[in-house]
Each structure stands twice: as C-alpha cells, then as structure tokens.
Amino acid sequence: MEPSLYTVKAVLILDNDGDRLYAKYYDDTYPTVKEQKAFEKNIFNKTHRTDSEIALLEGLTVVYKSNIDLFFYVIGSSHENELMLMAVLNCLFDSLSQMLRKNVERRALLENMEGLFLAVDEIVDGGVILESDPQQVVHRVALRGDDVPLTEQTVTQVLQSAKEQIKWSLLR
Amino acid sequence: QHNMLDSSDAIARSGSNPFQHLEKSAVLQEARIFNETPINPRRCLHILTKIIYLLNQGEHFGTTEATEAFFAMTRLFQSNDVSCHLLIKSVLTVSLLNSFMVFYSLTKDMTGKEDVYRGPAIRALCRITDTTMLQAIERYMKQAIVDKVPSVSSSALVSSLHMVKMSYDVVKRWVNEAQEAASSDNIMVQYHALGLLYHLRKNDRLAVTKMLNKFTKSGLKSPFAYCMLIRIASKLLDETEGGHDSPLFDFIESCLRNKNEMVVYEAASAIVHMPNCTARELAPAVSVLQLFCSSPKAALRYAAVRTLNKVAMKHPSAVTACNLDLENLITDSNRSIATLAITTLLKTGSESSVDRLMKQISSFVSEISDEFKVVVVQAISALCQKYPRKHSVMMNFLSNMLRDDGGFEYKRAIVDCIISIIEENPESKETGLAHLCEFIEDCEHTVLATKILHLLGKEGPRTPQPSKYIRFIFNRVVLESEAVRAAAVSALAKFGAQNDDLLPSVLVLMQRCMMDSDDEVRDRATFYMNVLQQKQKALNAAYIFNGLSVSIPGLEKSLHQYTLEPSEKPFDMKSVPLATTPITEPKTEIAPVATSKLPEKLARSRQDIYQEQLAAIPEFQSLGPLFKSSEPVQLTEAETEYVVRCVKHTFARHMVFQFDCTNTLNDQLLQKVVVQMEPSEAYEVIHYIPAPSLPYSQPGSCYSLVRLPDDDPTAVSCTFSCTMKYLVRDCDPNTGEPDDDGYDDEYVLEDLEVTVADHIQKILKPNFGAAWDEVGDEFEKEETFALASVRTLDEAVGNIISFLGMQPCERSDKVPENKNSHVLFLAGVFRGGHDVLVRARLALADGVTMQVTVRSSEETVVDVILASVG
C-alpha cells in the first residue's frame, strides 16, 4: 500500500430510517448520488440492528456508532488502519456531543446543522485527517457549550463551506 | 406551501426534519436577502445552511443557478469587508469577478488576525486556486506552513498536499518550510508535515532513506506520524529487498512496544504483510495481536483477528498459540469478528475440531455479509486441501451455501471450491457434479453456468453414468442465454465424442441446436455435428477435446497479416504463436478485499508483449513468430555494480537473448552496452544490438541474435560465456552531468545455459488420452532410466517438469500420498510446431526408476527428448 495521508473515503450520518442527514465522500469510489444512496442503504441494512462498531462492506472498512436515532459512519479502504478510522469516528462523535451538550439526537443535530458542517470540515479535509482532538474541533468551530452570540465569523465560515460546495457543483 | 415554513415552526412539530421538504427554487429565492443591506447574519447563516444541506442531499444546481447563488454570496462577503476596489471590478464578467473577489477576500482572511478563521480560509482558497494564482499566494503559504498556530499550519500543509497533483513544481519549493513544520510539537502538524515531505520525495529513494533515518532516530510525538513512518519504512524495505536485519526492520519492531495501540497495530500489521517473514520474526507481532484479541474495543479485536487470519494463511503454526483467544471470539457479538476467528481456527486447528467449527459457523452464516461468506468459503477450500478426508462434510456444507442467497463473488467462490474438491478427490466427483448440475438449473450468472458446463463436458463423459448429465445440459440449450447455450452445445459434443452409445442421441440433440436462433450456437452445433459424424478418434481429439492451442491475439494478428498480403498458399496455423499456459500460481488469497470492482480485462500475456517489443526492432522482423520466451535468468549476483538478467526468446531457427541491464552506480553513465557471447556449441552469434545509453538506475535492454545450428537439429543445449562491454563516462552523482570523455570497460557475467526446455512450449491437453491417440505411435520411442539421486516421487516429478519445460496434464503433477508408483503426462510443442507428448511411469524403489515413452509427429523431436533426458 502506498503510504499516504489520504485515509477517509467518506463520513456519513444517517437517521433511524436510514435516510441521509449528512454525507461527504472524499474520493470516486461512489461517483454518483445514485451509487452513494445505494451504498448508504446497504450500510444501514447491515448495521442498524447490531451495535458492533465495525464491519467490512463492499470491500470497505466501515466503523460506526449509533446514538438514539442517529447513525455515524466513517469509511476507509479495507487496508486502512482500523484504529485510525475509529479515531476519526470518536472525534466526530465527541465533538458533536460537546457542541450539542450531550444531546446527540436527530432533532438537536438538525437545529445545529451549520455546526456539523463546520466540525466535519475541521476533522477531515479532502480525505486527510485534519484533527483528532474534539476539544480543538469544538474550539475551531467556535460554537462552544455556552451560547455564543452568532458572529459575523460563523457566517463567513459557513459561507466558505457553501461556496466550496457550490463551486464543485458548478464544475460538475 | 410546506417549503415556505420557517425552520422554527417546523422544529416545533416534534421530530420532523426542518430541512426535509426544502425546495431548491424556494431556497434560492430566499437567498436574495443576501443582497439586502444591512445584512442579517442570523438569517443569512440559516439560508446558507439550507443550501449546503441541499447540496449534501445530492441536489444538483444548474450552472446558472449556482452562478447566481455564488454571486449573491460574494455580495455577502463583500459586505463583510466593504471595499471600493471590488466595486470597480464589478464591471468585469461574473465568473472572473467571482473568483477574483473570493480570492481577494480569502487572502485577506488567511493573513488576518483571527486565528480560528485562518485555517478554513487557507483550505477554501487552495480549493479554488489554480497554478498561476498559487504562485501569487506562495509567500503566504510558506508563512502559513510554519505558522505557530497548529490549525493554520496543518491547513496549509494539507492544502499543499492536495495541490501537489496540480502544481508539483510550486509545492516542491516549500520543502524547507515543511521540514521545519515536521519538528513542531503539535501531533497533527507533525503528521501532516511528514505526509507532505514524503509525497514530495517519494520518487527519490535516497531522500526517503535520509528522512526515515532522521525521524526514526529523533522520535515523534504523533501516533499518526508513527503509522505513516512505519508504512514508509515497510515500503522501502520491500523495494530494496532489505533483509530483516536492516535498521528499518528494527524500527518497525520497536514500534510494537509503543504505548499507543494504533501504532502497535500498524507495526504488527506491517510485519505480517512483509514477504518472506520467518515464524520467529513474526512471533512478537503475533503476541501483540493476541493481546488485542481480548480488548474491549471491537475495532481492535477485529483488526487483530483479521491480521491473524492473514498470518494463518502462510504460517498456521505461528498462530496456534492464539487458539484459546480465538476460541473466545467465536461467540463475539460482532459476527465479522466471529467469522474471522472461526476461519482462522479452521486453518490452525486440528482435524478433530473441524466438525464442531463448521456447525458453529453454519448457525450464523446467514447473518454475515457476502465478503465474509467468501472468507468462509476460502477457509473451507484451504481445509479441503489439508484434510482431504473431510471432503464429504465440506461438500454438504458448500451445497447448502450454494442454495442460499448471495452475490456473484460468493457463488463463484463456492463453485471454485467445489471444482477444486472434485479435482483433488476423484471419489467426490459424482456428488460434486450433481450439486453443480442442480445449481445451474437456477443460476443467473452466465459466467458460472458456462464454467460449470465446461466442467461437465470435461468430466461427465468419464463418469460411470454419463447419460444422467445429458438432461441437465440439454435443459440449458432450451432455457438459457446465447453464451450458455453455446457452452452447452460444446459440452454435449464431448459426450458424443467419448461415449459411442450416447452418440446417436447426441446427434439428434445437435440437429435441434442447428436450428437455434443464435449464430454462434448454430455454428458450433453444425461444426460438431460434422466432426462427430466422421466417427474418427483423431478428429474428435483435435477438434472436440483439445481445441486450439494458439494465442488468440496472435491468431488475430496473423490472420490480419494474411489478408493484407493475399497469397496462393493456405493459411498456416503453425505460423501463429502458441498460447502460453498460465502458470497456476499457488493462491495468494488476500482475505476479503475490494476486488469485485475491478473490471475484468483480457490480460495480454507476457509473451504477446515481448512479441510486440521484438517486432519493433528491424533486425528481428524476418525471424517469424516468437515461439517461446523464458523466465528471466539472473546473470549477476544481487547487490553488484550492474544488474543484468536475460530473457531467452526462441524463434523457429534463431534465438534472441534480451539482456535487461541496470546501472546501480550514480557516478557513471554507460553507453553502447552490448553483451558479448561465446557459444560452446555450433551456435552462431550473428548480430548484437547495443543499448545506446544506461544512466543511473534506469533499466535498458541490449540484444544478441543467435542462429541455431541447421545441420544438427539435436543440438538443443549450449552454454554461452557472457561479457558485458561498454563505454563508461564518469558523471557528477548529484546532477548526472557526464564527463566529455569516456573509456571502454567490460564486466564478466555468469554463464548462460540454453536447454531443451527453451525449445519446447507448454501446452495443456485437457484430454491427454485423446491427444495420445491422435499423435499415434508412428514415432513412439521408449527408454528406461534410473534416477539414483532422487529420493521421492514428488521430487522426480518436479525435476522432470522443470527439465523438459512441458505442461503436466490430467493433474498428474500431483502425486497422491503414500504411493510408490506414479504416471506423469506431459504435453508440449517443439520449436517448429510439432506436438510432443511424454508419458513417464515412475516407480519408487531405492531411487526412482523412470520409463519414458515419447510420441511426436516428428521423429527428430522424439530423439532430442530422449537424448536430453539420458
């Protein structure tokens, strides 16, 4: 295996019907939305009944965690160090847990989607693990536990995220 | 309508998703408030979130829509840093304006005072930057890489890595900054810097070695960086074929004692995946994996047992120590872990535990994913080879699995496994064929159906009751797709050719197939019909059992050539290069991996590639088709100044020796390299084609053309003494700049042998008996030899095969256990296109006695073989 920083193939959050709340794919394993949704469906079917943390699906290593009505998935190559993927999953979950004040469930998440978008961007960038410490992530997202008034900054951060994604949709 | 609901209202309705019914057009409508002054950050943020949510759901924005939204956002940005510069630029076109404004704003952000803000700005900027713009921000990037704020430094490093693909030359200039960042105290910065450094240097082995030395000595804080270092070290070990006494191996082994599990696992996994590891070297890795087996973390148990499973494939005994821990995992609630534990135990356990484990696994086989079902099948397959007596238990289990639901890969694994059991154990043949017959009755995979039909055609006619298979085969003709029908027709023909009492009924069925709607099916039926009606054994053998043995791409090329230059002469099949029988490698199974996604290509054989390369050299164009290419022979010791290996290419009357040379001295440039050859026999070197230049570490080839002795066709072996001659130009090791003058030098290579095997091409005769009859006994000769130095039948069989270079048929290369006599069947084609068949009866007494019978269509060939054996 070629040594590389590119570790994560996708980060997914599904609700308890298996519907996508958040999905970010970092390479071309599933190039179209149709293939992505089919993959998500397969993943959900294979994992939602058992809480067993790790599985091998469609030749990919999937680490996962569920909480109340949310399912978190981090996906990597089957040759990838499983513990690295686990580190990403734990970081994502713990960051959100702090941001949502331990209320990790669908409704709270939906009320804080912008925080989720920003947090994932701070944890993984283009498939490279950017940060693994939830404290750091929460700090950078600047949505700390106490109610920080909405600043211009957050707007611009979300804006950047949106712009980046629009840009890609333009290029498609 | 519903989509106009404000989010707070929606959330008030408990449990519903405020984004659920978003509509793109409505959101874009809302986005118009971006243009309002003063801006309302909270509302804007909410709308932006909606836009990202839609994108995230896979909603596609058309170019116009996206441009509009993008433009609106830029306005929003603008209100953030009001700037009259931008207003002036607004006369420019929209797209240009967009990128310029964003570029400008982001550049401001990335150099701004607010730290939390700079990292994302750098990443966003690099996403939209191209090579020219990148140069404009180069100074900022260099500063950012060494910034004392970790998030800024990490963002800059990772973004640089993303941009290497696009702008390698620019990013390369930041190596010093990356180097500095690598000594950062922050664990992520260290990791990212190491990753970038490696990526920039990976083609320069020396630089990678230096980097490894530095970091393995200084030690790192980041577990991620350690994992990266381990990967780099094991890759370098692999490439340099470094022994396990290398400091790199010591480094990896030392990581087994790291305090972070991630690093320990990475090191253990690296050691397990090294080729040629001895059991002793594996032992420390195996014992840490054993500890992980009882970890409370499922991912760690999974990783450990999966890696142990790999060890068990090559070194089952090394894993035996973990049997107890693996037993405990059989009942693991994670079925993947349980499956891996069981399959590992199947490989390491004793024969007596097989039944218990199989029972255990059948209790939950339906719960596991296809990937793991394949793992189970592979384990069973390995088990059958180890304990042939268990084949009936296995066969039952497999046939049950075959009836279950499952994808193609899974079914294929089962079918392959059943086929290999049939081949290994003649007594299981009939049960196995029966299971397969049942399977094709309801099989949706064309590939599998044709494969099974082919097998039925091959094995069915030789069973005690061939007639019972006819029904299954003919059902396919009635019910299936074209490819399957065609395969069924071929299978039927084999029954007709082998079994005289079935011939009349087969002919009737054939007649029906001649009315098929598909061309291929009709053609095959007509062809077989006509061959079968002749009732001649030789015809049956040549056209029904053993088929064509030429290379298909070669045939295509020859036929094309023939049509380009029409001639009176009929097309000669012998002018077509033979198909090289694929070497059946011992299965190197890599547990479950993503192989299913690779498109199956018709791989060109090695020989087709050589044929093309040689045909491109004018001197070799008149030699005719390439008959055979040998495996490369090393003519130098490992680790010498020059590495030379030779591939022997045999043509009808000539041989071409291809010397692949590599110059491993970085202070020399070699030119006009030839390998001079002195033959011991009447072989004549007629031409040398030099390699014009051999710079450091870039392989090059030179050739020698040799004419085989015409007058003595039995002179098949010869020894050549070889000397490499060349012009040396010393050069600067750093720049590669050579001196103006050079001097001649030479280097003595090891002798090169040409043996009888170089004149014979392997050919597989699926039905050796038929081929034996077809060649006939006109030129049959027989002789008896005593192989005094050989101690076992296996050894004798191996020696004969490698000496003659012929293809063992009917699996006669496998000597059954506890037998003291054996018959080996070999088939090949001698240079010039004469079939040659060898039957060697071996008897084990004090040494091995061998009675060799040779048949060929040409007498000299028979003589050559017997002479060379003697």
From TrEMBL, chain A:
AP complex mu/sigma subunit domain mapped to chain residues: 7-145
Zinc-finger among keywords: no
Membrane topology field: Peripheral membrane protein
Family matches, as InterPro entries: AP_mu_sigma_su (IPR022775), Coatomer_zeta (IPR039652), Longin-like_dom_sf (IPR011012)
CDD domains on file: Zeta-COP (cd14829)
Subcellular localization(s) per the UniProt record: Cytoplasm; Golgi apparatus membrane; Cytoplasmic vesicle, COPI-coated vesicle membrane
Subunit organization: Oligomeric complex that consists of at least the alpha, beta, beta', gamma, delta, epsilon and zeta subunits.
Assigned protein family: Belongs to the adaptor complexes small subunit family.
Protein task: The coatomer is a cytosolic protein complex that binds to dilysine motifs and reversibly associates with Golgi non-clathrin-coated vesicles, which further mediate biosynthetic protein transport from the ER, via the Golgi up to the trans Golgi network. Coatomer complex is required for budding from Golgi membranes, and is essential for the retrograde Golgi-to-ER transport of dilysine-tagged proteins. The zeta subunit may be involved in regulating the coat assembly and, hence, the rate of biosynthetic protein transport due to its association-dissociation properties with the coatomer complex.
Protein name: Coatomer subunit zeta
Organism: Amphiprion ocellaris (Clown anemonefish)
Gene that this polypeptide is encoded by: COPZ1
Automatic annotation (TrEMBL), chain B:
Gene Ontology terms describing biological process: endoplasmic reticulum to Golgi vesicle-mediated transport; intra-Golgi vesicle-mediated transport; intracellular protein transport; organelle transport along microtubule; protein secretion
Compartmental location: Cytoplasm; Golgi apparatus membrane; Cytoplasmic vesicle, COPI-coated vesicle membrane
Domain Coatomer subunit gamma C-terminal: 757-869
Domain Clathrin/coatomer adaptor adaptin-like N-terminal: 24-535
Highest rank taxon of the organism: Eukaryota
Gene Ontology cellular-component terms listed: COPI vesicle coat; endoplasmic reticulum; endoplasmic reticulum-Golgi intermediate compartment; Golgi membrane
Residue ranges occupied by any Coatomer gamma subunit appendage Ig-like subdomain domain in the UniProt entry: 609-755
Gene Ontology molecular-function annotations: structural molecule activity
Keyword entries, A-Z: Cytoplasm, Cytoplasmic vesicle, ER-Golgi transport, Golgi apparatus, Membrane, Protein transport, Repeat, Transport
Its biological purpose: The coatomer is a cytosolic protein complex that binds to dilysine motifs and reversibly associates with Golgi non-clathrin-coated vesicles, which further mediate biosynthetic protein transport from the ER, via the Golgi up to the trans Golgi network. Coatomer complex is required for budding from Golgi membranes, and is essential for the retrograde Golgi-to-ER transport of dilysine-tagged proteins.
Assigned protein family: Belongs to the COPG family.
Complexes and interactors: Oligomeric complex.
Entry protein name: Coatomer subunit gamma
Organism: Amphiprion ocellaris (Clown anemonefish)
Gene this chain is encoded by: COPG2
